[in-house]
Write a structure and sequence with these properties.
The chain has helices at residues 11-22, 32-38, 54-60, 108-113, 137-143, 152-158, 161-173, 179-188, 197-210, 214-224, 226-230, 237-242, 254-261, 265-271, 276-287, 297-307, 311-322, 329-338, 351-356, 363-378, 385-395, and strands at 27-30, 47-50, 64-68, 73-77, 83-88, 91-95, 100-103, 123-124, 131-132, 145-146, 176-177. By secondary structure, the protein is of the alpha+beta class. The protein binds adenosine-5'-triphosphate and magnesium ion (MG).
C-alpha cells in the first residue's frame, strides 16, 4: 500500500498533539482510527500516544478526565467538551491473562509492540505526517489479514480477551486470520474461561453490532472454541447455514440478535451479566406470543396488550428470523396512532373507582380490571366510565 503523505486529522486532535510536542513530549496518533482511515473509512476519534506521563498530560491541559490513569490514559476535553484519549507509551511488566501491570518510560516502538494486532499497531505523526509501522501492519491491511504482533500464543496468553478481539476485527473488517494467529487463538480459547463475564459480554455485543456478516461472526466464535466456553447455546454450523435471514441486517440490537442465534438466550445473557432491564427484555422475547394470532386489528390489539413494551423486539426478531419485513408493522403503527387502550392505566376506570362502586378491596379489584381491559382491547368503544363500572358489578 502506498502510504498517503497526509491523512486528515481533526484540528482538535492536532492541537492537543502540538501542545504536547511543544512541551517536549513525542506524540502520535495510534489505534483503530489510523487503521480505519487507511482502509478508506475517514475517522474523527483518534487516540493519541505520548511520551508524557499521565501527570504531565494533566498538568498541560486545563480540562482533563482521569479515564484510566492506572493504565496511563488521560481524557483531554477540547473546547466543545469532546473527550480525546491520550495514553502514555507503556509496556506490560506483568500479565496474568486478565489484567496487566504497566510501566512507562518506553519508546513508541515498545508501545506498539504490546498492541494486539499489526493493523492496530500503526502510528502516524499528526504534525510531521510521518509513519511508524514496525510490524508490517500496512502490508497486512493490504492483504486484508489479521495477524498478532509478535508471538501469537504468547500474546493471547497475556490477555485472553485478544482472542475475542481477533474474532471481532476479522468479522468486522472482513479479513482472513493469518494461520499461525488462528491456530494460537484456537489453542488459547480454553483460557477464555478466566475472563470476567462483563468483558466477554462487551466483546460479544461489539461483535454483533459491527460484523459485516452475522454468519461469519458466529462461525468464528464456533470454530475458535470461544462459543464452547462462553456461549455453548450458540447455533450450530448447520443452524447458521439454515437461517434464511439477512446476513447483514440493519437491525443490530445485541439482545435481539442473541435471542435470534442462541438456544436458551436467557441463560446466555444472564451468564454474560446483562442489566436487569436487558434480561427482562430477553425473558419477554422468550415468553411470547411472538406475533398476533391473526390478521385482524383486534388480533393486533390483543397481541400488543399481551406483549406490552416488547412488540418492537418481536418485530425485529421476526424480520431477522425470516429475512422478510414484519407483516403487522402497518397495523401496529395504526393501533398505536389511534391511541387505543392497551394497558390497565389506559382504562376509563381505576381501582379506586371500583372500590367506590362497591367492589371489595383486595385481589378482586385487579382481577376485575384485567377482565375489563380484555373487553376494552376487544372493543375500544367500551372504554367509558359508567359503562365499565356497570360491567364490573356484573363480573364480580
Ligand atoms: P474500535 O474501532 O473497536 O475502537 P480499536 O482498534 O480502536 O477498535 P480499542 O479497543 O479502542 O480498539 O483500542 C485501541 C487500541 O489499543 C487498539 O487499536 C490496540 O492497538 C490497543 N489495544 C486495545 N485493547 C488491547 C488489548 N487487549 N491488547 C493489546 N492491545 C490492545
Ligand atoms: Mg477505539
Amino acid at each position: 500500500m502506498e502510504l498517503p503523505l497526509r491523512i486528515p486529522i481533526p484540528e482538535e486532535v492536532t492541537a492537543i498533539a502540538r501542545r504536547l510536542e511543544e512541551a517536549g513530549h513525542e506524540t502520535w496518533c495510534v489505534g483503530g482510527a489510523v487503521r480505519d482511515t487507511l482502509l478508506g473509512d475517514e475517522q474523527k476519534d483518534f487516540d493519541l500516544a505520548t511520551s508524557a506521563t499521565p501527570e504531565q498530560v494533566q498538568a498541560l491541559f486545563r480540562r482533563t478526565v482521569a479515564v484510566g490513569v492506572k493504565y496511563g490514559t488521560v481524557g483531554v476535553l477540547d473546547n466543545d467538551r469532546v473527550l480525546h484519549e491520550v495514553t502514555t507509551f507503556r509496556h506490560d511488566v506483568r500479565t496474568d491473562g486478565r489484567h496487566a501491570e504497566v510501566a512507562y518510560g518506553v519508546s513508541l516502538d515498545e508501545d506498539l509492540a504490546r498492541r494486539d494486532f499489526t493493523v492496530n499497531a500503526i502510528a502516524y505523526h499528526p504534525l510531521r505526517g510521518e509513519w511508524r509501522d514496525p510490524f508490517g501492519g500496512v502490508d497486512d491491511l493490504e492483504r486484508r489479514r489479521l495477524r498478532a504482533v509478535g508471538d501469537p500464543s504468547a500474546r493471547f496468553r497475556e490477555d485472553y480477551l485478544r482472542v475475542l478481539r481477533a474474532l471481532r476485527f476479522t468479522a468486522r473488517l472482513d479479513f482472513a486470520i493469518e494461520p499461525e494467529t488462528w491456530e494460537a487463538a484456537r489453542a488459547a480459547a480454553p483460557g477464555l474461561e478466566q475472563l470476567s463475564a462483563e468483558r466477554v459480554r462487551d466483546e460479544w455485543f461489539k461483535g454483533l453490532r459491527t460484523t459485516r456478516s452475522i454468519r461469519r461472526l458466529l462461525s468464528l466464535w464456533q470454530k475458535s472454541g470461544a462459543a464452547a466456553v462462553w456461549i455453548p447455546q450458540l447455533w450450530s454450523a448447520e443452524e447458521v447455514e439454515a437461517w434464511p435471514g439477512d446476513d447483514a441486517p440493519a437491525h443490530r440490537d445485541p439482545i435481539v440478535l442473541t435471542a435470534l442465534c442462541c438456544h436458551e438466550p436467557v441463560a446466555v445473557l444472564s451468564r454474560l451479566r446483562v442489566s436487569n432491564a436487558e434480561l427482562a427484555r430477553t425473558v419477554a422475547l422468550v415468553a411470547g406470543p411472538t406475533e398476533p394470532a391473526g390478521i385482524s386489528t383486534r388480533d393486533v390489539r390483543r397481541w400488543l396488550a399481551a406483549v406490552d413494551g416488547a412488540a418492537d423486539d418481536f418485530a425485529a426478531l421476526w424480520q431477522l428470523r425470516s429475512g422478510l419485513s414484519f407483516p403487522w408493522a402497518a397495523e401496529v403503527a395504526a393501533v398505536r396512532a389511534a391511541g387505543v387502550p392497551l394497558r390497565r392505566g389506559d382504562l376509563a376506570v381505576s381501582g379506586q373507582d371500583l372500590i367506590a362502586a362497591g367492589i371489595p378491596a383486595g385481589p378482586a379489584v385487579g382481577q376485575v380490571l384485567e377482565r375489563l381491559l380484555a373487553l376494552v382491547v376487544d372493543d375500544p368503544t367500551l372504554n367509558e366510565r359508567a359503562a365499565l363500572v356497570a360491567r364490573a358489578k356484573e363480573i364480580v
